[in-house]
Structure formats: C-alpha cells, structure tokens
Amino acid sequence: MSNKFKLLLSCIFMLNIVLPVFSFSPSGGVLVLDGEDDYAILPFGKYGYIIPRDTDAFTVEFWFYPTSDNQPEAGKSNIILSQQVRFALGTKNRCIDPVNETDELCIFGAAYLEGAANGISGVHVVIKKNEWNYMAVIFTDSTLYLAYNDKIYKKRKFTPMNVVAGELRLPEGFKNFCVGGYAEDFLIPKLYFQGEIDTIRVSNIARYDLPIEKGISAFEPPHRFSSDANTLALWNFDEHEGSETFEDASGNGYTLTGMNGATTSGTLAVQPTSNSLSTTWAKIKSE
Ligand SMILES: [Ca+2]
Ligand SMILES: [Ca+2]
Fold first, then answer.
1. Residue 7 CA to ligand 1 centre (angstroms)
2. DSSP label of 67
3. Which residues contact residue 88 at a Cβ distance below 8 angstroms, ignoring those fewer than 6 apart?
4. Of the bound ligands, which one is closest to the alpha carbon of residue 27?
C-alpha cells in the first residue's frame, strides 16, 4: 500500500469520525405533549397488551424531541412511553455515560420480561435535549439491547427471562399503553413528558444488525418506519393539525386517544438543528 493511499485512507477514517453521524427531520405531523398533563392512551380494558404472550423477540422504537429543562427529581418518574416496554427520563447518576445537564438528559429504556423468572431489564443512557433523538428497546435470544441515536448497548444474556411479560404484575393503571404519562399516580409520583414525538413502531422481531460484543457499539438509526408483516403497531402522528385521535398505520386498529390537550401539530413547532452540514443532510434525506 503506498503511503499516499494510506494517508487518504486515514483522512477518510478521520472524516467519518468528525462528520455528524446523522441528523433527523420529522416526517409529516408530530404528537405535541405539554409536560403538564398531556398523554395519549390505549386503555388496557379495550386493547390489552400490544406484544402477544410468549413473544421471544421484539422491537419498540421511536423518534422524539424532549424539551424538558431538567431530569425528574429523585423519586419521581417522567414517562415517555409505557406498557410492556417503558421509556422514561431517568435518574442521572444511574446513567452509563456522564450527563452534561446543559444539553443532555438521562433516559431509561426497559422491558418487562418473563420465563423461569420475571422482572424488568433496562439501561439508563444519555440523549440530547432540544434535538431529535432515536431510541429502541430490542430483545432477542434472552438479551436486551438499547439503541440510542448512533449507539447501541448490549446487556448480558439472561436465559431465565426469555419472553415478553404476558401479564404485568402491577396496578391496573400500569397496564394501559401510554405515551407521555399516566392518567393517575401509581406507586411513583410522575411528571408528564414535555416535547414532541414523530413516530413510534412496535414489532414482533428484533430489527437491525445487532452487535456481538456486550457494552456499547456503533449503531445507525433508521429514519423512517414503514409497516410490514412484523409490525404490531405504528403511529406516525400525521393526522391533520389539532387531531386528538392518532391512527395505527399497521392496520391493527390501535387508535391512540389524546388526553388533556395532547394533539398533533402539522406545522412543526421545532426545527432541526441549524448546523448547516446536518441541515443539508436532513434535506437530502427527506427528498
Ligand atoms: Ca410524523
Ligand atoms: Ca394539557
């Protein structure tokens, strides 16, 4: 290999590190949550659990834009999405990475699992506030993965919990599928999520190339979710502005109901970051 070629290779390698890994602009409308009392719900009594009992591989993923100023205080929880899989703002000292509180938040992603044992398995990771973020809980082969933007964290395989929880051993209110909070306080006093959500997808397979090594690996987040044979539910929040019901694009009929003012915004209340490189890239992606 010539020295020139080696230099070129190392330049390309360095460029890959320096360039922004991704940027994101939402598609169509978004769900807007005010952080005071807004949430969207699939009542458990009508819809049950989204992921069927004994499912041994699944993915729950979404794009969201948090505008919360602060982490919740100790002892409080700030739910973003919740049922068999839960995402919530977490306690910063539990994060696997250090949290810079000026522009970062600590988020907890977890799944309720069962098998020979039952319990909750999750990870606290750092994401950016006032920017679009991707997160996914992915489960397969008794192993939980948490994808967050351009990273993915693989937990240790735990064979006694090999399928999704077919029944949550929790108070009735926890069994609803909720986006942005609960109807009432249960066990943990909660705060509501403040920000926007572009899209949420629930699947009965483990999507994406998953790392072999435990710990943190690189990840390339998908920018658009489509519905396919493995999609259990997909909300795009592309309804007309001001809508208070949100259709399930999977065809499975999981129509979310917005509560206390949770509604769609067709004209985006937030814009992608003004960084020219990433804006250009976002534009290219959306064309
Ligand atoms: Ca959308
Ligand atoms: Ca409200």
1. 43
2. -
3. 77, 78, 79, 80, 82, 107, 108
4. 1
Is residue 90 within 8 Å of residue 108, measured between CB atoms?
yes
Q: What is the pLDDT of residues 150-169, one digit of tens each?
A: 999 999 999 999 999 999 98
> Is residue 14 situated within a structural domain?
no
* Residue 195 is assigned to a structural domain of this protein: yes
Q: Label residue 185 by pLDDT band (50, 70, 90).
A: low
**Nearest ligand, CA 247:** 1
Domain range for 257 is 24-286
In this structure, the chain runs to a length of: 287
Please tell me the distance from the alpha carbon of residue 191 to that of residue 200, in angstroms, as a whole number. Answer: 21
**Any idea which ligand is nearest the CA of 36?**
2
Q: Under a CB-based contact definition with an 8 Å cutoff, are residues 265 and 67 in contact?
A: no
Distance 237 CA to ligand 1 centre (A): 5
Domain of residue 167, CATH code = 2.60.120.200
Q: What is the pTM of this model?
A: 0.85
How remote is the CA of residue 26 from the centroid of ligand 1, in Å?
A: 6
Place of tokens 């065809």: 251
Per the domain annotation, does 18 fall within a domain?
Answer: no
Ligand nearest to the CA of 244: 2
Total structural domains within the chain: 1
In whole angstroms, how far apart are CA 168 and each of 85, 113, 202?
Answer: 11, 9, 18
The pairing of strands 143-148 and 77-82 is unpaired
Q: Is residue 224 part of a domain?
A: yes
User: What average pLDDT does range 147-152 have in this prediction?
Assistant: 97
Question: Nearest ligand, CA of residue 262?
Answer: 2
Residue 184 CB partners (closer than 8 Å, separation 6+): 173
What whole-number distance in Å separates Cα of residue 115 and Cα of residue 166?
Answer: 10
Residue 13 has pLDDT above 80, yes or no: no
The confidence score (pLDDT) of residue 215 equals 97
